[in-house]
Specification:
alpha/beta; two-stranded antiparallel sheet; 14 strands
């Protein structure tokens, strides 16, 4: 997710205290999840990956897949960044990271019958895991464009009842938004399937979307240094430097990106989407008939029997408090 509009002023630097151990101490079964990301785009993807991997008592992380959007270079650069974050989280070779689509849904859809196609590694991985024998529905958590997800559903429609798609994207009902415009046909395809589809709304510059879940540079410098497991050898960062934990890399990412507002801050859109899968109480769901996109603008279909869920009004303080706590008191993915 890349920021593309003016932003809200950050209302509070200090997150309120919250009880984040309640879920871990309950008997709730873990959520099976595959995260789909354009990891090299800006900095929210990296924080979403770390947050997911540090909630190993909540999530069964089955893999991370990548795609290419307009920024961040080619798909291999997105792959390399996702792999870098996984290594900085101490899970190198333990969490599979797979190459997905470089091009768009329409470019690839007609080639799905071929043994090799753009994005095949990620698409086949999603299908394989969706078809696995497990009573728990697999959550596909795309935080970039929807190409890999749409291709998976198109290649193997039988997985539609086996997955739940929670997408970070859209300014609905307003037009635009980075993840959306990178592959609008993929979004329209998903809207017309029967898959369980939920949207964690972005809404640039408005308090009702994930744009409100913001972190200031001063806050990151206070909370993140030294957090996460120590790894060896140190990892070379995207902007240079050598890092032995994700927390130090987080500070470097914030120091090497344009910040907005007073105090200077950046939204952690993608991390907020992970947070509401962990704790739905941190946002408000609203069910609507599935709309469609026409010429880049939303068209409501009030008589459409197919319903989707919109997530809005995110509890910034609760989400950020849990994020910082998990950076310090992490439970790595794959732990019992």
């Amino acid at each position: 997710m890349r920021i593309a509009a003016p932003f809200l002023v950050l209302a509070a630097l200090c997150p309120i205290a919250t009880n984040t151990t309640a879920l871990a101490e309950s008997n709730v079964e873990k959520v099976r999840v595959i995260l789909d990301t354009d990891a090299n785009n800006e900095l929210d993807d990296q924080h979403a990956i770390a947050y997911l991997l540090f909630n190993g008592d909540v999530f069964d992380v089955e893999g991370i897949t990548v795609n290419r959007t307009q920024a961040g270079g080619g798909v291999d650069q997105h792959l390399a960044e996702a792999q870098r974050v996984v290594r900085l989280c101490g899970l190198d070779s333990k969490i599979p990271v797979l190459r997905g689509a470089d091009k768009s849904f329409h470019d690839i859809q007609g080639r799905l019958g071929q043994p090799e196609f753009d994005g095949a590694e990620a698409v086949n991985f999603m299908i394989e895991h969706a078809r696995a024998t497990d009573e728990r529905r697999l959550v596909l958590l795309p935080v970039g464009k929807l190409t890999n997800i749409a291709l998976s559903l198109a290649k193997e429609p039988a997985i539609i009842p086996k997955v739940r798609v929670v997408w970070l994207g859209s300014n609905y009902p307003a037009p635009g938004e980075y993840n959306q415009v990178n592959d609008e046909p993929a979004l329209n395809y998903i809207l017309d399937t029967g898959v369980a589809f939920e949207i964690a709304l972005v809404r640039y510059g408005k308090p009702s979307g994930t744009d409100a879940v913001r972190a200031a540079l001063a806050e990151i410098r206070q909370n993140m240094p030294g957090t996460g497991p120590s790894v060896s050898p140190p990892e070379t960062g995207r902007h240079g430097g050598r890092f032995s934990c994700f927390g130090d890399y987080s500070v470097n990412l914030f120091e090497n990106i344009r910040l907005h507002g007073t105090p200077p801050s950046r939204a952690l859109f993608d991390m907020a989407a992970v947070a509401i899968v962990k704790s739905p109480a941190w946002a408000t769901p609203r069910t609507i008939p599935a709309p469609m996109l026409k010429d880049g603008r939303w068209v409501d279909r009030p008589d459409n029997p197919r319903k989707i869920i919109l997530w809005e009004d995110f509890d910034r303080n609760a989400i950020m408090a849990d994020f910082y706590e998990r950076m310090k008191k992490y439970r790595l993915a794959g732990s019992s």
